[in-house]
């Protein structure tokens, strides 16, 4: 059942120079249930202009604000960790100047209220995949980290991740697979060079599965490159647009 939950900030700390980790919990989060996908994301419901959180309604498969109440903005974010016993979720925010969610994370304090919608995800490698390739910019790093931490098979895992600075690389991620780090995210022309990174990747032999997350136009270009030029079957590529240059995404 699709649902929405009221949550509050439990803890917050700076994870890397460009990322802040926030743990969200509270009484209502005891009802939260994982989707079962390791790349699952939720829509966070931020306070409206009056400082209160207006919870959305699910109408025809889309979250909508009640017309008679102040509108709370929604933004999609990865569930980095779900703690069933503590009834909390962990969300990692890439922080920068001028972003609604980024500003909220930088100024959040324990007890601050926020809404959380029911999660969904897409990571689904075929059973016969001999290897998994994960490609993401900094916004997809939390999902990559969770996929690797929760993997239960001995397939070959390879990751290519673009972050703003070398200090943003998470040391524990590299212990779970062959990880390749690239810097410049947010500073290069167009904010990302994931398409160029993918063009230079040597794919392993045999059947595999490729999961891509990042800027929407970039992920579309990558999917086309993999399927049309590399011959990867379409059902073996999951490409997700997490954000769009110059636009907010509800």
TrEMBL record:
SUPFAM superfamilies from the UniProt entry: Riboflavin synthase domain-like
InterPro entries, per database record: FAD-bd_FR_type, FNR_nucleotide-bd, Riboflavin_synthase-like_b-brl, SIP_FAD-bd, SIP_fam, SIP_rossman_dom
Superkingdom as given in the UniProt entry: Bacteria
PROSITE patterns: FAD_FR
Pfam families assigned to the protein according to its UniProt record, in alphabetical order: FAD_binding_9, SIP
Residue ranges annotated for the FAD-binding FR-type domain, each copy included: 2-126
Family assignment from sequence similarity: Belongs to the SIP oxidoreductase family.
PANTHER family xrefs: FERRIC REDUCTASE, NADPH-DEPENDENT, NADPH-DEPENDENT FERRIC-CHELATE REDUCTASE
Annotated protein name in UniProt: Siderophore-interacting protein
Species of provenance: Mycoplana rhizolycopersici
């Amino acid at each position: 059942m699709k649902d929405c939950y009221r949550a509050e900030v439990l803890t917050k700390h700076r994870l890397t120079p460009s990322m802040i980790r926030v743990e969200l919990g509270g009484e209502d989060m005891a009802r939260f249930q994982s989707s079962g996908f390791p790349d699952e994301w939720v829509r966070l419901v931020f306070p409206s202009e009056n400082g209160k959180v207006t919870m959305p309604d699910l109408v025809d498969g889309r979250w909508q604000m009640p017309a008679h109440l102040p509108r709370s903005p929604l933004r999609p974010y990865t569930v980095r960790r779900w703690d069933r016993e503590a009834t909390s979720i962990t969300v990692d925010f890439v922080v920068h100047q001028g972003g609604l969610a980024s500003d909220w994370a930088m100024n959040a304090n324990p007890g601050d209220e926020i809404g959380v919608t029911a999660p969904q995800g897409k990571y689904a490698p075929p059973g016969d995949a001999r290897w998994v390739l994960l490609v993401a910019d900094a916004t997809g790093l939390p999902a990559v980290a969770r996929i690797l931490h929760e993997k239960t098979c001995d397939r070959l895992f390879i990751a290519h991740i673009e972050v703003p600075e070398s200090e943003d690389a998470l040391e524990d991620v590299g212990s779970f697979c062959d990880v390749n780090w690239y810097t410049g995210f947010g500073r290069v022309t167009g904010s990302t060079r994931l398409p160029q990174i993918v063009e230079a990747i040597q794919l392993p032999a045999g059947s595999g599965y490729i999961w891509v997350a990042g800027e929407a136009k970039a992920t579309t270009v990558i999917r086309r490159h993999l399927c049309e030029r590399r011959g990867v079957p379409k059902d073996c590529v999951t490409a997700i647009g997490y954000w769009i240059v110059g636009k907010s995404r509800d």
